Amino acid sequence: RRPHVSAWHSITPYHSRWISKTTVSDRTMLKSFSSTTCSPAAPLQHQTISEWTRERVKFAMGKAFGDDYVHMDAMITPATKVAFGDFQCNVALSIAKPLLSSPRDVALKIVDSLEISDIFETPTIAGPGFINLKLRDDFVFNQLGSMLQDTERIGVPMAPQSQRVVIDFSSPNIAKEMHVGHLRSTIIGDVLSRVLSFRGHSVLRLNHVGDWGTQFGMLITNLRDEQLSEEVELGELAQLYKNAKVRFDNDTDFKQRSREAVVALQSGDEEHLSSWRLLCEKSRKEFNVIYDLLDINIEERGESFYNSRIPDTVDALIGTGIVTSDDSNKSQCIFLEQIPFGCCGVGCASSGSVKRQAVNYPLFLRKSDGGYGYDSTDMTAIRHRLFEMDVDWVVYVTDKRQAEHFYMCFEAARRAQWLKDETHRFEHVGFGMVCGEDGKPYKTRSGDTVRLVDLLDMSAVRMKTSLEERVAEGKCQLTNEEVDAAARQLGYGAVKYFDLKQHPESDYQFSYDKMLDTKGNTAVYLLFAYARFASIVRKGKELGVDAQALAGAGKTPFRSEGLQKEELALAVELLQLPDVIEVVMGDMFPHRICEYLYELSTVGTTFVTQCFVLNKEDKEVMESRVMLCSATCIVMKKCFDLLGIKPLERI
Fold first, then answer.
1. 241 vs 91, 215, 220, 272, 642, CA distance in Å?
2. Which is nearest to 585 in space by CA: 124, 34, 55, 51?
């Protein structure tokens, strides 16, 4: 799609996974807390627990130390150990020095001003000044009951204001087959689209395919020379591309005819346009096969869409005074010298802490031969999205090696006063490579790039073999007729999850064995766990506890007394989904959903192992525990849906 231009380690397990900065700093709203509180233990309706807690701590800081402290980060994080509670506040350690006081004394003053008894037990202070917060048991189960009244939202609030969002992802090249390198952009972009849509934003998924440029001159010329029919398949076109490149590099006559073909194509010659349309149509057909397998919805808007708009974009940029023209070779460039290397817009997790980075080459708007390239196309796309589509937020999902290029484009748009950080959010989500066990880019034994369709097919084949073995051993409930469909669902889900659980910017080693393992942090393990919870819920219904009917009738018979620790741990874990989603909205890292899903599954498995759920001798206990299993299914299913994975109710 675009030329490459020249990691953060994974989040540590469990509670550090969704640490985020405060996003609310309105002083008037915070002051209103002194007169407006919810009923004790009443469920929250329009905020996550961490948002609510953060605002209360900020109010307490303002009350104790003055209004200037209302605007500081409250530093609310999940507790590092269960023994400490559910949340901890570390702000006392960071503000003690300017207050000329000890962190512990600062913590005491915050606690004295803290109004959180609605949902928390009495705060405790540990060590030098850590404030530990434990949720009230009655609040936990009231909140969980409220979540189950709306199984579509399950406690995740809609965004305060819906925004127009473009997610630019996948972006294969015409006449080339999609390969393993396209996997990450495609599924990361899909997850981000799902998450933002879930929060209520209007999301347009755009596929910026490489369907224009000088390479089409040699493709069309070679297509005609080899006299390929309209029945040509994409695999043949891919070989055509390779052959054309060899001829272009070694055959002077072919190179000249290819250049003439580019001119004819860009001038609108119908014969050349017809060949171009054939290339696009055949490629699009094969791309859609992959998208159907992965359950991807995306709208194509390739480079050719912007081609006619480029001259106006260049003229508009010249009019802003930021373009440098070289009279000697007629090129036109934008020199930036330094750029913010990161997202600076509204709602970015990194906003306010983005470092500036030097760049030693310009954006080329017009080349010395008068032609245009990637820089001018991408600047045109930005202009179109801002002024014709009127978007608020754009996310580009590409190889991390392209980050500098996009941050240069964003900075150029800022200097042209098109992009305004106070009202827009433009960001790049970069990803690393898929590697083989040798740590190098994943390839076939012959050294060719692995076709994405082959990778998906192999995962389904291996999963089918595994399921057939389990059926033969009596460990699987599926019939022989159901195995094929289940193998595809599990296999494709395994491919997605194995990629998505990685931090996007990290490279990772692809392994079928690890990906399809039934133990550990894999989709197969999680899907089996989900099926186990679903089975318990079905058996509960057979014994007279219909969780769905109870929730539908507004009844959530959770116990909040006489609990085993595993019951409470699962209930608290279930309440964390809204906070996880909120953090993903800030940093655009899908692996946080994977980490939460795995932790929830682990805590849930411990619960059903240690607690007798289907206890016919105690109807009250059975109702509460079956409802917990049902809630676990609902939350896990939503996580799977956001990851683009379809769970099986029975395996």
1. 59, 9, 10, 16, 36
2. 51
What pLDDT does 9 receive? Answer: 27
**How many other CB atoms are found less than 10 A from the CB of residue 39?**
8
- For residue 297 the two structure tokens come to 């919805």
CB 620 within 8 A of CB 608: no
Q: How many CB atoms lie within 10 A of CB 569?
A: 17
Distance of alpha carbon 601 from alpha carbon 633, whole angstroms: 10
Closest CA to 648 of 548, 541, 526: 526
Contact 651, 531 (CB under 8 A): yes
> Can you say whether the dihedral through the CA atoms of 246, 252, 254, 259 is positive or negative?
positive
- In this prediction, residue 315 carries a pLDDT of 94
Find all residues with CB under 8 Å of 306, minimum gap 6, and list them: 377, 380, 381, 384
CB neighbourhood size of 173 (10 A): 20
**DSSP output for 36-101:** --PPTTPPPSSS-HHHHHHHHHHHHHHHHH-GGGGGS---EEE-SSGGG-SEEE-HHHHHTTTTTS
Contact 412, 322 (CB under 8 A): yes
Q: Assign 3-class secondary structure to 532-564.
A: HHHHHHHHHHHCCCCHHHHHHCCCCCCCCCCCC
Location of structure tokens 């001003």: 113
Q: Which residues pair with 132 in a beta bridge?
A: 88, 124
Q: What is the mean pLDDT of each run of 10 residues along the chain (651 residues)?
A: 32 34 41 46 78 92 90 88 89 92 94 93 93 93 88 91 96 90 95 97 97 87 77 74 88 90 86 90 92 96 94 95 84 92 80 81 87 91 97 96 95 96 94 89 77 93 93 86 93 96 94 91 96 95 90 79 90 94 94 97 96 90 94 97 95 88
pTM, two decimals, is: 0.89
Please report, to the nearest 10 degrees, the dihedral formed by the alpha carbons of residues 59, 65, 71, 73 taken in order.
-80
pLDDT of residue 34: 43
